[in-house]
Amino acid sequence: MIEAVFSSLDMEKAYEIAKKLPELDEVEISAILAVLEARKYDADVIAGFAKAILEKSRVELGRVFDTSGTGGDKSETINVSTAVAIATSNFTRVAKHGNRAMSSKSGSADVLEKLGIRIDLSPEEAKGLIEKTNFAFLFAPKYHKEFAKVSGVRRKLRIRTIFNVLGPLVNPANPERQIIGVSSEELLKIVAESMEILGRKGIVYHGNGIDEVSPFGKTTAFIVENGIEKIELTPRDFGVNECKIVPCKSPEESANRIKAVFENKGLKEDFVLISMNFSLAMFALGFEDLKENVSIFNEKVESGDFLRKLEEIACRSTSSSSP
């Protein structure tokens, strides 16, 4: 199996490797992940892995949207994509797929727990929650149980692997549209092509060293919509002033800062960071005026709609029956 990783990989070979990966021991899994990371991988390999994983994890939630990042950028931002997922659920059904931190300070599951949202929902509970609130979280270990051993290896390795890239692409709800932040510019086109192969539409982006829309400098994005189009964005395109990122050290801090923004009491830097990423998410949903989308964000913060949505999700998720 390890020898196969050193050979030329196409989508079918990658699919077969991914299918057999859970059957291997930890040393073999570690070696395969390390070799793949060292030799790099193209869109066919990523799509092949994603296809194998999705075959064993599908859940039917209807037409949904997802916001996610690959992680691995070491930037120590707050959980921006998770905040954006909650915010955009005011406008569309969001099935947020994620995990605990593997190579960062705080994963989406970690911060959602600190926000009071139950993360271990069964497919039936997730369906009930999304029907009531427009939001559901799909905790990766619960939906990808066959890959539990791989997850354990990743946790021990604590380095970026192909599974960081795969995370946004193996959402069991198979989102029709999604936005994906990637940790390096070299992943932009590869992930965009993978989305296209898998029949997804949306946006893949990288902002000045982070897997978010950057509040300083340039953000490069690939729009996947009947082909792939490259665009470049700066804070000026969103109608905001450049600012730095305030590092975040823990899930508790991330949760507190996200809630503070929704309460209209947060740091200016967090407002800018979340609003820009929210704007791009809305762009992917068909709201094409980036500056207007930032205005929508500000209006929803001032009206308390985002805070009420957060409280509603937390209340209804914890009141559902235990799995």
From TrEMBL:
This is Anthranilate phosphoribosyltransferase. It catalyses: N-(5-phospho-beta-D-ribosyl)anthranilate + diphosphate = 5-phospho-alpha-D-ribose 1-diphosphate + anthranilate. One of its GO terms (molecular function) is anthranilate phosphoribosyltransferase activity. Anthranilate 1 binds at residues 69, 99. Catalyzes the transfer of the phosphoribosyl group of 5-phosphorylribose-1-pyrophosphate (PRPP) to anthranilate to yield N-(5'-phosphoribosyl)-anthranilate (PRA). Residues 63-305 form the Glycosyl transferase family domain. Pathway: Amino-acid biosynthesis; L-tryptophan biosynthesis; L-tryptophan from chorismate: step 2/5. Its EC number is 2.4.2.18. Its cofactor is Mg(2+). The gene is trpD. Mg(2+) 1 binds at residues 81, 212. InterPro entries: Anthranilate_Pribosyl_Tfrase, Glycosyl_Trfase_fam3, Nuc_phospho_transferase. Keywords: Amino-acid biosynthesis, Aromatic amino acid biosynthesis, Glycosyltransferase, Magnesium, Metal-binding, Transferase, Tryptophan biosynthesis. It holds the Pfam family Glycos_transf_3. 5-phospho-alpha-D-ribose 1-diphosphate binds at residues 69, 72-73, 77, 79-82, 96-104, 108. GO terms for biological process: L-tryptophan biosynthetic process. The keyword Amino-acid biosynthesis applies. It is an enzyme of class 2 (transferase). Anthranilate 2 binds at residue 154. Transmembrane segments: none annotated. Mg(2+) 2 binds at residues 211-212. Homodimer. One of its GO terms (cellular component) is cytosol. Binds 2 magnesium ions per monomer.
